[in-house]
Design goal:
Helix 1 runs antiparallel to helix 2 and helix 5 packs parallel to helix 6. The protein is globular. Helices cover about 35% and strands about 25% of the residues.
Length: about 270
């Protein structure tokens, strides 16, 4: 195990312990931009502890975090962290959320950790070394037809055009006779579900880098494919995302790409 992965694991455990404590003991939620965009001391204190662990190990590395750290996406050594992915679930006491930590060198993901501290679900990946879930090697599902697949979906905080475009894309998926749609509200764990083979694909019309930085590598190391909803490589910026087992990617791309232009956040 490389030092960055060891550091990511330790940082995830430390941050996860903080959010687990708040989850059990209670915390006051606050809004950031909209009434649906929540934050709490759990998010903030988890991020601060994660950053402390990273900087103790790598004091010259840059950090990009959801709450307090706006690191340079072009930095040679970049850590991208979400201290509490799935804050809305956390706020409503649903134990489906995670700490997500990805380490990038010269813009390329090298390792990623996603950990749900309540259910003790740990997903790990290192570039070129595969991905695991609680020690078990991950491989994507073998679904080749939409009619064989369960699809994951995410909704951004926008309640206008982006929501309508997402609903329209879901409708088109159902018309392909998919088995169903699931929306669990934690992007890092949605990507892990594709890596596990549970989902054939997952899409969302807007995510930030901390939402997908670790999960993207986990899925790719499990044999999957990740692009924007237009089929472009993922930037380390806010973007759309389509993740799949690979075999379903082009079929899903024809659906989500059709509605991408309409999926613009309302002003």
């Amino acid at each position: 195990m490389t030092q960055p992965l060891e550091t990511a694991l330790y940082a995830a455990r430390e941050g996860g312990a903080i959010i687990a404590r708040y989850f059990h003991d209670g915390v006051t939620m606050r809004t950031k931009g909209t009434s649906a965009d929540l934050v709490s001391d759990a998010d903030v204190n988890s991020e601060r502890r994660i950053v402390q662990v990273i900087r103790d190990a790598f004091p010259d590395h840059c950090v990009m975090g959801e709450e307090e750290h706006s690191g340079d996406e072009n930095a040679e050594h970049l850590w991208i962290i979400d201290p509490l992915d799935g804050t809305t679930n956390f706020a409503h006491h649903l134990p489906h959320f995670a700490v997500s930590i990805g380490y990038y060198h010269k813009g390329v993901a090298q390792c990623g950790v996603v950990w749900n501290p309540i259910r003790d679900d740990l997903y790990i990946a290192e570039r070129g070394r595969g991905a695991t879930h609680n020690g078990r090697t991950l491989r994507v599902g073998q679904q080749k037809l939409m009619s064989e697949a369960l699809i994951g979906v995410g909704f951004y905080y926008d309640r206008g055009a982006m929501m309508e475009a997402t609903l329209a894309a879901i409708g088109d998926c159902f018309r392909q006779q998919i088995h169903g749609v699931r929306r669990f509200g934690t992007a890092s764990l949605d990507l892990a579900q594709v890596a596990c083979g549970s989902y054939g694909a997952y899409f969302e019309y807007q995510l930030s880098p901390w939402d997908f930085a670790a999960g993207q590598l986990i899925l790719e190391e499990a044999g999957g494919r990740v692009t924007t909803c237009s089929g472009a490589p993922m930037p380390l910026q806010k973007t759309s995302i389509l993740a799949s087992n690979g075999a379903l990617h082009d079929q899903m791309l024809s659906i989500v790409g059709r509605h991408l232009q309409a999926a613009q956040p309302t002003k």
